[in-house]
User: Which sequence fits this backbone?
């Protein structure tokens, strides 16, 4: 009888370990507002998760996800839109060098070439942003590179558009962030019974 109880306790412990590992490896809960699809849930192998901070806030709401176009000039969304009121500080997500800080088509844009990401390097872009950095300046993760402009956004609510590309190829900027930065809630253990 005692052996049966030991087997049951061991089986429960094994089940607890399996459930815990499965919970830790499960994808994080959705970050996206209704109607904000994420076309590429798995980051491409060429995009390392080197981001150390969100561009705005600590866990901003994604108003519109990344949706790559079917063709070079086809419809799509070549970045993600993050909710951020005008005046919100915009931060570099990773170490790099400012490739551009200025206006494009009436919008303030800051582009950062990310250090150690190959040739051509990965480049993040942020708009609409009033830059507080200059071209050629080195930036560190979390360093303020500007503030969200009051005008120039293509969002219906205030937002910053965050993009990522290597050369002419666009990628999902969320793939720069490690899972622990994407996770919205605390880890939860399921009951044994």
Assistant:
């Amino acid at each position: 009888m005692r052996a049966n109880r030991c087997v049951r306790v061991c089986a429960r412990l094994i089940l607890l370990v399996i459930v815990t590992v499965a919970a830790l490896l499960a994808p994080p809960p959705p970050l996206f507002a209704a109607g904000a699809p994420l076309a590429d849930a798995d980051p491409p192998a060429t995009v390392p998760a080197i981001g150390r901070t969100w561009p705005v806030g600590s866990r901003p709401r994604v108003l519109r996800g990344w949706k790559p176009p079917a063709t070079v000039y086809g419809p799509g969304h070549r970045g993600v839109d993050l909710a951020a009121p005008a005046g919100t500080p915009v931060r570099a997500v990773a170490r790099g060098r400012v490739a551009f800080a200025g206006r494009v088509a009436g919008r303030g844009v800051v582009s950062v070439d990310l250090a150690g990401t190959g040739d051509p390097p990965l480049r993040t872009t942020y708009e609409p942003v009033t830059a507080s950095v200059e071209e050629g300046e080195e930036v560190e993760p979390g360093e303020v590179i500007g503030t969200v402009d009051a005008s120039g956004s293509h969002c219906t609510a205030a937002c910053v558009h965050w993009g990522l590309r290597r050369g002419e190829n666009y990628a999902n900027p969320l793939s720069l962030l490690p899972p622990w930065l994407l996770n919205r809630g605390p880890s939860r253990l399921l009951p044994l019974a």
